[in-house]
Amino acid sequence: MEKGQLQSENNTKYSGESELLLAESNLSGYNKDIVRKISGEISGSINVLEFGAGIGTLAAEYQRATGVKPECVELDATQRQVIIDRGFICYTSLYEVNDTYDAIYTSNVLEHIENDREAISQLKTKLRKNGILVIYVPAFMILFSDLDSAVGHYRRYHKKELMEKVINSGFKIRKCHFVDSVGFIAWLYIKFRGYDRKEKSGEGKSMMIYDKVVYPISKIFDLVGFRYLFGKNIMLVASNDYE
Hints:
The protein is of the alpha/beta class. Helices cover about 40% and strands about 20% of the residues. It has a single domain, classed as Rossmann fold (3-Layer(aba) Sandwich). The protein contains nine helices and seven strands, in the order ααβαβαββαβααβααβ. A seven-stranded mixed sheet has the order 3-2-1-4-5-7-6, with helices on both faces. β1 (about 50), α3 (about 55-65) and β2 form a beta-alpha-beta unit. The chain is globular.
């Protein structure tokens, strides 16, 4: 297993770019569902920001699904250029953002940030009064695997931990639940099998099977209540109700 570099202000290069490209090509259903979940929480928002936009996969899908074009923040220079080439405004950091937004969403980003509490607090300053923040992050440190290390994760989250960090930053929690209950089991398999990013053969096919077969089943399990018990990810929705 090749360990990824942890991202920081001094090291802006993201180590999981190859995984992002594979995910965009082979997880179209999964990405569409994440956007569906996010857009459902911030429906009607005109000014939207995506924090940690990667190569712009979700931003592009969000625009297709809603007609609203998010602005983006992305630390990695190579990925930022991809986003700009796709026609989106993209900032290097939140410090460059002078506007405030009706809604901000961030998907699989906070786990890459060492001081995630500060990042959440900064996000609050970019939200308008009663603005909505949607956070989507990996769940359960028990699932922390070679793949997490390879793409530069500092952590996976427990619900209580994430909720406390968001509340302590001045937000009011609207909802918080797990996503992708069957994915929890799939990630356990990855953890115990191990992950070698040098062995790419078959990885795209595995993602496609997950996208077309496993994740649709997982959505059904989530709907019947498993999302309140466990899942591969956590989705949290909060509002900026306080000054």
